[in-house]
Specification:
12313_t:CDS:1
Length: 40
């Protein structure tokens, strides 16, 4: 859960967003690779 200190809480939330974006990026990349692989 976010920290009581608003600055710390913002940093934690930002870090969570970055991780989520990375996971989405890799998931999409893997899905793309899987599609390409199936065509071969």
């Amino acid at each position: 859960k976010p920290d009581k200190n608003p600055v710390v809480a913002e940093k934690q939330i930002a870090a969570i967003h970055v991780l989520a974006e990375k996971e989405i990026y890799y998931a999409q990349k893997n899905a793309g690779n899987a599609k390409t692989f199936n065509y071969m």
